Amino acid sequence: MKIARPGPRRASAEGYLDGQLLIAMPVMSDPRFARSVIYMCAHSEDGAMGLIINQRASHISFPDLLERLGIVSSNGDDGITDEVGRMSIHVGGPVETGRGFVLHSSDYFADDSTLPIENGVCLTATIDILRAIATGTGPNHAILALGYAGWSPGQLESEIQANGWLNCPADPDLIFDPNIEAKYARALAKLGIDPSHLVSDAGHA
Q1: Is residue 184 part of a domain?
Q2: Considering the entire predicted model, what is its pTM?
Q3: What is the CATH number of the domain that holds 71?
Q4: 69 belongs to a structural domain
Q5: What is the pLDDT along the chain (205 residues), one digit of tens a residue?
Q6: What are the E-state strand segments in the chain?
Q7: Parallel, antiparallel, or unpaired for β 95-105 and 121-124?
Q8: Which of 22, 102, 183, 199 has its CA 20 to 30 A from that of 93?
């Protein structure tokens, strides 16, 4: 698996959704994004990139990933805590699913590889943060995702205009909530919306 550094962040401007949540509408035709909640890591005139935060990767566990990357050995003598062993791996999106990204709290920061986004939420995509998490020296809150969601210039704006997505402010409690299944309803509740009341022609936030 390739772990790559994120690129430089462009300054956010009015109308861009860096640091916000995208919430899929019921009419979302792409099954990869059905009922998805996406944290937007970058959005500019050049396109957009985000991580799905409410889809679990069922094909691999965190200890398995650490073993594949050579961070821990297969004999289980590396002292990984039960908490670390229970960490979920998320499906971050359909683009470059071999790349790993860690969305995390700002108590972990690497000068050459951590990208601050908004409200104490950061993105790091190097293997060092996985080593730190494995040894108990990583961030207090973290989501590990494989792959990401990406949009070409103007694509996301068109999808929002077509009522494919709602958007709302993000907060760390929701982003890092271990109850992955509750995130969709929680995100809609931030907009005062009951999921059962959504209709296909609802407008966007």
Answers
A1: yes
A2: 0.86
A3: 3.40.1740.10
A4: yes
A5: 444 434 433 334 457 999 999 999 988 888 999 999 999 999 999 999 999 999 999 888 888 888 888 887 665 555 677 788 888 899 999 999 989 999 999 999 999 899 999 999 999 999 999 999 998 899 999 999 999 999 999 999 999 999 899 999 999 999 999 999 999 999 999 999 887 766 554 444 4
A6: 20-24, 37-44, 47-52, 89-91, 95-105, 114-118, 121-124, 142-151, 165-169
A7: antiparallel
A8: 199
